[in-house]
Design a protein that fits this description.
This protein is mostly helical. It is built from eight helices and two strands, in the order ααααβααβαα. The longest helix is centred in the C-terminal third of the chain and has 26 residues.
C-alpha cells in the first residue's frame, strides 16, 4: 500500500509527472500561483494551497520535494518575516507574515530546478536577479495592495536588493547541494 505523499518510481500518471518537471509548465504553474497569492491573498488561499497540493501530487519524488519546499521556502519565509519585523513590510491587519505569502514562497521553492534553473549555474546572474527582480515583485505587490512599505520606497527597495542579491545565489547553492538531480545521483539515494 502506498501513501499519497510517498515517492513512487511507477507513476500512475506518467505524462502528468513528466509535465510537472518541464520548465515551461513550472513557469505557468508558478505564475498562476503568484496571481492567486498576490491578487487573491486570503480570498484565494484555498486555491493557492490547492495549486501547491497539485504540484506535490504530480512530482515524481514527493518526499524530496517536500524537503526542498521546507528548506528553500522556509528560508524565504524567515527572511520576509525578518523584513516584516524590522518594518520594511507592513501587511493588512498588522499580520507579521500572511499565509498567502507563505504559499508564494513554497511555490517559488519549486523553481530552482525547473523554470529558473538557468540561474543556478550563474551566481552573478542570480545575484543580479535577486537585486532587481525580487524588489520589483514586491513593488508590484504593493501597487496591487498586497503589501505596504514601512520605510521610504527607495530604502525598502535598497534593503531588498541587498538582501536578495546575497540570498538568491545562496538558495541556488542549497538547491544544488541537497536537491539537484546530479548531486542526488552522486550519493546514495535519499530514502523516500
Amino acid at each position: 500500500m502506498t501513501t499519497p505523499l510517498a515517492d513512487s518510481a511507477a507513476a500512475p500518471l506518467p505524462f502528468a509527472r513528466q509535465l510537472s518537471e518541464k520548465a515551461w509548465f513550472n513557469a505557468l504553474w508558478f505564475q498562476s500561483t503568484w496571481f492567486c497569492t498576490v491578487l487573491g491573498r486570503d480570498d484565494l488561499l484555498a486555491v493557492s494551497l490547492g495549486l501547491i497540493g497539485l504540484h506535490l501530487l504530480l512530482v515524481p519524488r514527493r518526499r524530496l520535494e517536500m524537503r526542498q519546499l521546507a528548506l528553500l521556502g522556509g528560508i524565504g519565509i524567515a527572511v520576509d518575516t525578518g523584513l516584516s519585523l524590522i518594518g520594511v513590510f507592513q501587511f493588512q491587519g498588522g499580520i507579521l507574515m500572511p499565509g498567502w505569502l507563505c504559499c508564494l514562497w513554497l511555490a517559488f521553492a519549486t523553481t530552482p530546478g525547473r523554470s529558473l534553473a538557468f540561474l543556478g549555474a550563474r551566481p552573478w546572474l542570480a545575484a543580479l536577479a535577486g537585486a532587481l527582480v525580487v524588489p520589483f515583485n514586491y513593488y508590484a505587490g504593493s501597487r496591487l495592495g498586497a503589501v505596504e512599505f514601512g520605510w521610504p520606497l527607495w530604502q525598502s527597495l535598497l534593503i531588498m536588493a541587498l538582501v536578495w542579491s546575497i540570498l538568491l545565489p545562496a538558495l541556488y547553492y542549497l538547491y544544488r547541494r541537497f536537491f539537484s538531480p546530479m548531486e542526488l545521483e552522486s550519493h546514495d539515494p535519499l530514502p523516500g
